[in-house]
Fold this protein.
Amino acid sequence: MEYIIKNGMVYDPLNNIDGEKMDICIRDGKIVESVGESAEVVDASGKIVMAGGVEPHTHIAGPKVNVGRMMRPEDSEKDVEAKSGDRRSGSGFSVPSTFMTGYRYTEMGYTTAMEAAMPPLIARHVHEELVDTPILDKGAYPLLGNNWFVMEYLKNGEVEECAAYIAWLMRATKGYAIKVVNPCGTEAWGWGGNVHGINDPAPKFGITGAEMIKGLVEANEMIGLPHSVHLHCNDLGHPGNYETTLASFDIAKNIKASPKYGERDISLYGTHVQFHSYGGTSWRDFESEAPAIADYLNKNDHIAIDVGQITLDETTTMTADGPMEFDLYTLTGFKWANCDVELETGSGVVPFIYSSKNPVHSTQWAIGMELFLLTKDPGKIMMTTDHPNAGPFTRYPRIIAWLMSSKYRNDLIENELHAWAQKRSSIATIDREYSLYDIAQVTRATAARVLGLSETKGHLGVGADADVAIYSFNPETQDASSDYMTIEAVFRMADHVFKDGEIVVKNGELVKPRIDGRTYWVNCHFNEELEKNVISDVKKKFKQYYTVNFENYEIGDGYMRRSAPIEIK
Amino acid sequence: MIKGTGDMMSKIILTPKEQPQVPLEVDTILPDTLAGKTIDEIKSMNILYGNTEVELQEFFDVEGESGEDPSELQIEFNGDVYNTKRIGQGMTTGEIVVKGNASMYVGAKMKGGKITVEGDVAGWAGQNMQGGEIVVMGNAGDYLGSAYRGDWRGMSGGKITVHGNAGREIAEYMLGGKIHIIGNVKMLPGIHMNGGILIIDGNVISRTGGEMKGGTIIVNGRIGEFLPGFEYLGVRKDIDVDGEVMQGLFYKFRGDFATKGADGVVYTATAKNAHIVP
């Protein structure tokens, strides 16, 4: 099937195209130079055309997401969709069911989404849910920041052994990237504690967060994985944590990115940095240090971040940062779920209500916005809400509108937010507004590049996958700064969405809800001799400590409908 | 003109034809939605029969006359609708009368108006109720005036009166308003209660106010077994409950100290409860 998208205003930062009126040709699921006369024409005149959105960090599948669904029937009740046609029923405002997750990302013009926290031992559950998340291409990041094997290898300075273990684990769990969450902190939580900062050693193992980050970044580049280490820093949500954040970022400064696939140029990825940009010493003198973080980003090229923007909703927090969730539980008194994953990681789930009347939450909102607006190069920053931790992903259109309209922001700051938003941050003094080019950058291009997927994702050049979103907004006649409500509406429901060259959203309606996306994973071949030794070591530990047999640990190809291995040799 | 006197009101009478084995759900049939509609329009309004939408007239004969003003409109279920759920769910005004029994969720999320059920109601009546009034002449099931499953923000306003007995875990997570049970109740009345008033004239089997943090529970009958997390404060005479004086002698307790920051109050009539006083 051939298509031609005619006369749209194209925003494609990876190919330096900024609002040029041009045609996009599609054949057999790919963007091509030209198509024949029989190609079906989709008229995009007076509309925006972008590549399909790429979500670098979200929690949409697996054990903790499902615990969130199970423990919050009251969240499910708030948002219910009946079955209609081929579209399945679903429910959940902050933790939607898998099918609804696929539909809603697609409706917003997103075509790729990465599950950011996969406990290796429970990887099977993650893949089972990803299989039932339709349309989207996806992948999942195995959690390694509190893994006993990793801690032991790195404590002994055996970075190569660690790399061999990770190479095996990526294959065994069908994982995509190394995720590090509160390195050593979740292990300490197994003993009822936490670590503070990057130099506080984990109990028994004696290794520090700083050593873990350094060793894992080195191992990552030794293997040559497409994505960098994906870091959730220590001290999440603590006043004064920005120093920990900057010190963590600095660890990777002199380590060169050497991916064997893709065009990644960073050696470290900092996630939901809004939660890590806090000054002060307590919630009383809490203030924004986002300018210090943005300044670091402006001066260094080895790092990129996603924001984790607060959307001021009632939502559900969920993370492998077990001790942080316990803090949240003691703060709110809300229901709390906690889990320990044997030798690997842990997790917690707590509902949370972000309120515009609350001084801290208002400041958190401002900090996220500051990160977006003070970081000069949108090639270093990505839009996320750390779904659902800071808010549900369905609020992305609102964040886009906030970024594009200082009037929208100021209305909120002056009329709804607590005065702390102005007093404890610089947000009220910033009048920068994102262009549509900037939006394309932070929602597509940057993520595709840092994930190592920019050959086929995040752009509309010849050879890219034909994932395309068309939005009904005419930049020649409409002004995003004043017409921000329209921006919010058009980015919530795209006019057309193509996935692999098929029309899945047509005239604002999801017409093909039952197609499957790819599962990306990394088929690592590192050092096979070394890997043999490492695996015999792993097998011994399995006998000694694990509740499952080594033979039952590996995830077979049957857990992916469209397996898309990236070969690393 | 005095509202709610009956005479002034326009009235729609729904006579049940049969109660099917699969339940009906009628949260679309409210004074708010019937006002301004003709009888023919009302007959063809949709209700749920299991997971299928059917017209109201398939299960009910519809008579009477609607009016423009929903606050002047009474809907009468003229018979036993024991397998019809969500009667008066979300209503804001007007009146609903049920001449027999009703199934679950009577007056759930109700904001205003009045519902009278002459028979019994099943579970979850008045769930997350915000205002208005529910009167049950018979018995009520479990979770009367409670929160939606999983929610920690329950009934916040309005009044529920049950002339018979009530089931388990009534007033769960209650925040405000008033519930009055004239008969007996089963286990755990006022569990997780955070506000409001719960008056029980009859007996309670056990565990009154489990993990309550706020609000007031008055038990005029006998509490079978009381929880250990309550502090005994002594005997009080003629207590003042939200501006109304309740005559007699009461033991006063504060708790439930099984939870942090507990400040709930339980009064029990002294006559039958000497066994729970330390």
